[in-house]
Design brief:
157 residues; alpha+beta; Yope Regulator, Chain: A; six-stranded antiparallel beta sheet; 6 strands; 25% strand
Amino acid sequence: MLFRIALPALALIAGIHGAQAQNLAASDPAAIAATITQMGYRSEMQADPQGNPKIASSAEGVNFSIYFYGCSGEHDKCTSIQFRAGFDKKDPLDQSVATEWNETKRFAKATLTSNGDPILRFDVNLDKDGVTKSNFTDTFRIWTLLLSQFKTHIKWN
Protein backbone atom coordinates (compact mmCIF):
# COMPACT_ATOMS: atom_id res chain seq x y z
CA MET A 1 0.00 0.00 0.00
CA LEU A 2 2.78 2.44 0.91
CA PHE A 3 4.46 1.70 -2.43
CA ARG A 4 1.27 2.64 -4.30
CA ILE A 5 1.20 6.03 -2.60
CA ALA A 6 4.95 6.67 -2.76
CA LEU A 7 5.33 6.01 -6.49
CA PRO A 8 2.77 8.60 -7.67
CA ALA A 9 4.17 11.11 -5.15
CA LEU A 10 7.67 10.52 -6.51
CA ALA A 11 6.43 11.00 -10.07
CA LEU A 12 4.73 14.24 -9.06
CA ILE A 13 7.91 15.55 -7.41
CA ALA A 14 10.00 14.56 -10.43
CA GLY A 15 7.52 16.29 -12.73
CA ILE A 16 7.65 19.49 -10.70
CA HIS A 17 11.44 19.42 -10.62
CA GLY A 18 11.56 18.79 -14.36
CA ALA A 19 9.27 21.75 -15.03
CA GLN A 20 11.42 24.04 -12.90
CA ALA A 21 14.54 22.88 -14.72
CA GLN A 22 13.02 24.21 -17.96
CA ASN A 23 12.21 27.62 -16.49
CA LEU A 24 14.08 30.70 -17.62
CA ALA A 25 15.44 33.00 -14.93
CA ALA A 26 17.46 36.22 -15.04
CA SER A 27 20.23 34.29 -13.29
CA ASP A 28 20.84 32.39 -16.56
CA PRO A 29 21.33 34.96 -19.36
CA ALA A 30 22.79 32.34 -21.71
CA ALA A 31 19.57 30.30 -21.55
CA ILE A 32 17.53 33.42 -22.31
CA ALA A 33 19.80 34.23 -25.27
CA ALA A 34 19.51 30.64 -26.54
CA THR A 35 15.71 30.80 -26.33
CA ILE A 36 15.68 34.04 -28.32
CA THR A 37 17.88 32.42 -30.97
CA GLN A 38 15.59 29.36 -31.06
CA MET A 39 12.71 31.75 -31.74
CA GLY A 40 14.55 32.93 -34.86
CA TYR A 41 15.89 36.23 -33.54
CA ARG A 42 19.46 37.44 -33.20
CA SER A 43 20.88 37.28 -29.68
CA GLU A 44 24.40 38.37 -28.85
CA MET A 45 25.71 38.14 -25.29
CA GLN A 46 27.45 41.33 -24.15
CA ALA A 47 28.06 43.24 -20.93
CA ASP A 48 26.67 46.63 -19.93
CA PRO A 49 29.00 49.39 -18.66
CA GLN A 50 28.71 48.03 -15.09
CA GLY A 51 29.73 44.55 -16.25
CA ASN A 52 26.27 43.01 -15.91
CA PRO A 53 24.99 40.73 -18.69
CA LYS A 54 23.26 42.28 -21.67
CA ILE A 55 21.75 40.70 -24.77
CA ALA A 56 21.73 42.59 -28.08
CA SER A 57 18.91 41.66 -30.44
CA SER A 58 16.53 43.08 -33.02
CA ALA A 59 12.92 42.72 -34.10
CA GLU A 60 10.53 44.69 -36.27
CA GLY A 61 13.54 46.41 -37.86
CA VAL A 62 14.63 47.83 -34.51
CA ASN A 63 17.80 47.02 -32.57
CA PHE A 64 17.22 46.61 -28.85
CA SER A 65 18.98 45.36 -25.74
CA ILE A 66 17.93 43.22 -22.82
CA TYR A 67 19.55 44.51 -19.64
CA PHE A 68 19.91 42.39 -16.51
CA TYR A 69 19.21 43.94 -13.09
CA GLY A 70 19.55 42.96 -9.46
CA CYS A 71 22.82 41.18 -10.24
CA SER A 72 25.34 40.24 -7.56
CA GLY A 73 28.77 41.84 -7.26
CA GLU A 74 30.01 39.01 -9.46
CA HIS A 75 27.56 40.15 -12.19
CA ASP A 76 25.49 36.98 -11.88
CA LYS A 77 22.42 35.89 -9.91
CA CYS A 78 20.40 38.63 -11.59
CA THR A 79 16.71 38.95 -10.70
CA SER A 80 15.04 40.88 -13.52
CA ILE A 81 15.46 42.04 -17.08
CA GLN A 82 14.52 45.10 -19.07
CA PHE A 83 13.89 45.13 -22.80
CA ARG A 84 14.99 48.55 -24.10
CA ALA A 85 14.91 50.17 -27.53
CA GLY A 86 16.08 53.68 -28.35
CA PHE A 87 15.02 55.65 -31.41
CA ASP A 88 17.21 58.42 -32.84
CA LYS A 89 14.74 60.87 -34.35
CA LYS A 90 15.67 63.79 -36.56
CA ASP A 91 13.40 66.12 -34.57
CA PRO A 92 12.75 65.79 -30.82
CA LEU A 93 9.58 63.93 -29.92
CA ASP A 94 7.04 65.97 -28.00
CA GLN A 95 6.50 64.76 -24.43
CA SER A 96 2.76 64.52 -25.11
CA VAL A 97 3.40 61.64 -27.56
CA ALA A 98 5.21 59.64 -24.85
CA THR A 99 2.53 60.55 -22.29
CA GLU A 100 -0.23 59.38 -24.63
CA TRP A 101 1.58 56.03 -25.09
CA ASN A 102 1.97 55.58 -21.34
CA GLU A 103 -1.69 56.38 -20.69
CA THR A 104 -3.04 54.00 -23.33
CA LYS A 105 -0.63 51.04 -23.36
CA ARG A 106 0.24 48.40 -20.82
CA PHE A 107 3.57 46.72 -20.09
CA ALA A 108 6.05 49.03 -21.88
CA LYS A 109 6.83 52.59 -20.83
CA ALA A 110 7.95 55.40 -23.13
CA THR A 111 10.52 57.95 -21.95
CA LEU A 112 12.52 60.65 -23.71
CA THR A 113 16.23 61.38 -23.60
CA SER A 114 17.44 64.92 -22.91
CA ASN A 115 17.55 65.33 -26.73
CA GLY A 116 13.92 64.27 -27.12
CA ASP A 117 14.70 60.84 -28.55
CA PRO A 118 12.16 58.19 -27.47
CA ILE A 119 13.08 55.07 -25.50
CA LEU A 120 10.74 52.13 -24.98
CA ARG A 121 11.30 50.04 -21.81
CA PHE A 122 9.65 46.80 -20.71
CA ASP A 123 10.56 45.37 -17.28
CA VAL A 124 10.14 41.67 -16.51
CA ASN A 125 10.62 39.95 -13.14
CA LEU A 126 12.52 36.68 -13.62
CA ASP A 127 13.57 36.09 -10.01
CA LYS A 128 13.28 32.95 -7.88
CA ASP A 129 12.27 30.06 -10.16
CA GLY A 130 11.85 32.28 -13.23
CA VAL A 131 9.10 31.59 -15.75
CA THR A 132 8.36 28.76 -18.12
CA LYS A 133 9.90 28.88 -21.56
CA SER A 134 6.39 29.22 -22.98
CA ASN A 135 5.72 32.24 -20.76
CA PHE A 136 9.02 33.85 -21.79
CA THR A 137 8.38 33.34 -25.50
CA ASP A 138 4.94 34.90 -25.06
CA THR A 139 6.53 37.84 -23.21
CA PHE A 140 9.03 38.23 -26.04
CA ARG A 141 6.20 38.24 -28.60
CA ILE A 142 4.42 40.92 -26.58
CA TRP A 143 7.64 42.97 -26.70
CA THR A 144 7.88 42.64 -30.49
CA LEU A 145 4.22 43.64 -30.85
CA LEU A 146 4.81 46.67 -28.63
CA LEU A 147 7.88 47.61 -30.71
CA SER A 148 5.76 47.55 -33.86
CA GLN A 149 3.00 49.62 -32.25
CA PHE A 150 5.52 52.09 -30.81
CA LYS A 151 7.17 52.61 -34.20
CA THR A 152 3.76 53.57 -35.58
CA HIS A 153 2.96 55.73 -32.56
CA ILE A 154 6.13 57.82 -32.88
CA LYS A 155 5.99 57.80 -36.70
CA TRP A 156 9.30 55.96 -37.00
CA ASN A 157 10.23 55.40 -40.66
